[in-house]
Amino acid sequence: MPQLTGSIVKYPARNLVTWYLVLIMLGTLLLTLPICRGSGSTNVSLLDACFTATSASCVTGLAVRSTPHGFSFWGQLVILCLIQVGGIGIMTITTFTMFNLGSKPSLRARAILTETLGASDDADLKWILRHVLMVTAITEGTGFLILLVRNLFLYDPLTAAWHALFHSISAFCNAGFALHDDSLMQFQGDIVVNLTISALIIVGGIGFPVMVDLHKNFPLGITRGWQNLHIHSKFMLTGTAFFLLMGFGGTLFLEWDGVLDQMPLWKKMMVAGFHSVTCRTAGFNTIDLASLTNATLFISMILMLIGAGPCSTGGGFKVSTVVVMALHAWKTFQGSTRINFARRTIPNEVIQAATATALLFSVVAIAALTMLLVVEQSTIPHPKSQGVFLDAAFEVVSALGTVGLSTGLTGTLSIMGKLIIIALMFLGRIGPISVFAALSRSERAVPVEYPKEEPLIG
Amino acid sequence: MPQLTGSIVKYPARNLVTWYLVLIMLGTLLLTLPICRGSGSTNVSLLDACFTATSASCVTGLAVRSTPHGFSFWGQLVILCLIQVGGIGIMTITTFTMFNLGSKPSLRARAILTETLGASDDADLKWILRHVLMVTAITEGTGFLILLVRNLFLYDPLTAAWHALFHSISAFCNAGFALHDDSLMQFQGDIVVNLTISALIIVGGIGFPVMVDLHKNFPLGITRGWQNLHIHSKFMLTGTAFFLLMGFGGTLFLEWDGVLDQMPLWKKMMVAGFHSVTCRTAGFNTIDLASLTNATLFISMILMLIGAGPCSTGGGFKVSTVVVMALHAWKTFQGSTRINFARRTIPNEVIQAATATALLFSVVAIAALTMLLVVEQSTIPHPKSQGVFLDAAFEVVSALGTVGLSTGLTGTLSIMGKLIIIALMFLGRIGPISVFAALSRSERAVPVEYPKEEPLIG
Ligand SMILES: [K+]
Ligand SMILES: [K+]
Predict the structure, then answer these.
(1) What is the pLDDT of residue B55?
(2) Which of A11, A154, A296, A401 would staple A304 via disulfide (CB 3.0–4.6 Å)?
(3) Which of A141, A165, A169 is nearest to A151 (CA)?
(4) Domain-by-domain residue ranges, chain B?
(5) Which residues of B fall within a CB distance of 8 Å from A454?
(6) Which of A 244-283 lie inside 8 A of B, CB atoms?
(7) Contact A348, B337 (CB under 8 A)
C-alpha cells in the first residue's frame, strides 16, 4: 500500500488515466442521482451523465443537456467540482510530469521552475500543487469578486454569488460551462463581464510555468524582465498575442456585415475580441456560432486546434508547439539546421517531439472525423447531408482541443456519436501529457548509423 | 544570348515559373481563337481560356467548360498538347533539379540516377529529357494501343484513335481531362478501360526515378531486385500500395450501401479501386463525386493531399514525404533520434525538409480555403450555405494537389474564385520543386550554438 502511494506520487502521469477515469465515473454516478436533475426536466440518462461528467472533468464544455435547466443546483455543484478538480489536477500533473519525468536531460524542462522560482531541484508534487492552488485561489477569487459586484445589479445576492463563483471557476479552468442556455450571449455588450471572463481565460490558458516566470521577473521592470524570461514564456506570450490578434482581426473582417452588423464599433470590437479569446479553448460564446460564416468557423477551428499553453487548463496543439514548428520551418527555408532564438538554441529533441505530437494529433483528428461522419450519416450522400461536414469537423476539433464550442451538432448526436466525442474529450485531455511522458522515457541505446541514403521529397 | 541559354539549361528550376507562364499564356491565346470553340457553344472568355490552359499545363483537370462540347477538335488538340508538354516538362525539370541543384551533398539525391542507371555523374538535362521521353512514349504508346482496340468496338476508327490517344496521354500525365462530359462514368463496368487507365495513372504517378530504378533492378528477380532498390523506390512502392489499399477499402466500406449499392461484387471492387487510384492526383471519375457520402469525400481529400511521387506527373505532399514524416514520428515515439530503414540512415536534412514542406503546404491550403470561403460566400451565414464548406475544401485540395476532382463547385465559381483556383493549380505544380530548390541553396555558415533552452510542448 505505501508502495502504491509512493508510485502514485512519483509517477502521476502513469496514473493520470486512472485518476481521470475515477473522477469521471464518480461524476457520472452523482449526476444520475435524482437530486441532481433539474426540476421539470427528464431523467439524466447514464450516457448523458457520463458525457457531462467527462466534459466537466476534462474542462471541455460540450453539453448534451442544458446546464441551467437540465440540472438542479446540486447537479450544477457536481459539475463545478468536477471542473475545479479537473482543472487543478491537469495543471498540477502536467507541470510535475514536464519537470520531472524522463532521464534525458534535454527533455527535462525543470529549469523554469528551479531557476526562476527557487523550487528545490526535485520540485515535488506537493510544492507544485501548493503553488497551483495559490495561483488558482488568487485568480478565481479576484474574478469572483468582480463578477459578484456586477451580478448584484442583476440578481438577488445568493444567485449573484453563485453565478459569479460558477463563471469565475469555469472561465479560469477554461471549461466553458455557463449557467445560461445561451452561454454568455446576454452579456454581449457588458464590458465588465467580457473583460473579466477574458482575463480569467487568458491567465488560465497561458500555463502555470509562464505565470511563475512572470511573477519572478515582473519586479525587474518591462525591459529587463522580458530579457530575463525563459524562452518558453517568450514563445507563449508572443504566440498568444499573435493568435489573439489574428482571431480578432479575422472575425472583425469576416463578420463585419455578418453577425456584427448593426453593432456600434466598440461592440463589434468587443464581440470579435471575445470570440478570439474563447476559441482558444475556453468555450464560452457571446454570439450564436451557428450563424457565423463558414470562413469564420474555419478560422475558429484553426484557433481551436492551436489551443493554449502547456501545463495550463487549456488544450489543443499548444501555442509553443506551433511556434517551435513555425520557427523550425522558417530556419529550414533559410538553409539552417539549428534554431536559435533570443540567444538560445532549441534542442533538436524538442523539435522532433513537437513534430511527432502534431502528426499524432492530426491522425487522431482525421480518424475521429471519419468515424463521426460514418456513424452520424451512414450512407446519406453529400447533397442530402448539406452542412454536416463542417458541423462534424467543428465538433471533433472542439472536443479534441477541449474547447467546447459547437455549431449545434452536440444536441443531435446519436449514441455512437456521443461515445466518440466522449473518447475525444478524454484523449484531448489525457493524450498530450501521456505522449510527452512516452517521449521522455529513459534513453534508448543510440541505434547504429548506416550509410546515408535519402528518399526524394517535395 | 548564349549566356541566357546557358543559364536556362543550367538552372531550369529558376526558370520554371517563366516557362509555365509562357506555356499557359500561349495556351490561353490559342484557346480563345474562334476555331477552338465547340460548334454551338458560347465564346471562350479570356478567364475561362486561362483557367483551362492552366488546368491543362499544370495537369490538374479542373474544368469550367466542357472539354467535349465547349471546345472543337482543335481546342481539344491544344489542351492535349498543353497536357503533354506540361507533364513531360514537370517530370524532366523536377528530376533535373532534384539531382543537380544545391551544393549540400546531403540534399543531392543524384545517387539513384548515377548508381542505378549509369548516368554520367552530372546527369544533364538532355540525358534526363531523352529518358523521360522514352518512358513516356513507351507507356503512352502501350496505353494507346490497348484503348484503341477497345474503342474500335464503340466508335468509328478515327474517333476511336483520337479518344485512345487523348485518354492515354491524359491518364499517363495524371491530367484527368476526358472527352466525355461524365468523365469515364460510362466505362464504370469496363474492365479493359479501368485497368488500362489505372495502370497509366499509377506508372505516371510513381515518378521517373522509381521507374529508372525498377528498370535496372527488374532483371535481378523479385527478392534480390527489391533488396537492391534505392530506399526512395522502396518508400514509394510500399507507400503507394498502402494508400491505394486504404482508399480502396475505405471507399468499398463507406459506399457499400451508397453509390456502390446494387452493383455486383466485382463491379463494387472495380469502382472502389478506380476511385482510390484516381484520387491520388489523376482526376478521372467513374462515379458521380457529388453523390458520395461526406466520409468518403473526406478520405478522398486526405488521399488527394498525399498525392503521388516526386519527379512524376502527380502532385500533392508526395507519398515519400508522408512516409518520411510517419517514420520520423514513429522513431521519435520509440525514443530514437535516428531514422534507420532497411540498413540505411535517412539524413536529418531530409526530415527537416519534409516537415517544412508539409507545413508550408498546410499554410497555403488553409489560407486559400479561407479566401475562397470569403469570396464565394461573403457574409452568408453557415446555415444558409449548407454544404459549401466541404465543396470548397475539396476544390482547394483538388487544385493544390493538381488532382482535378470536383464535387461540382468549379462550374459555379465567381471570377475571384476562378482566379484563386488558377493560382492554386499553378502553386501546386510549381511550388514543391521551387521549395526544394530553395531548400537546397548553397550552404549557409552554420550559426552559433547558444546555451540550449527548451520551450515546453505537447
Ligand atoms: K473548454
Ligand atoms: K490531375
Answers:
(1) 92
(2) A401
(3) A165
(4) 9-439
(5) 106-107, 109, 231-232, 346-347, 349-350
(6) 254-259, 261
(7) yes
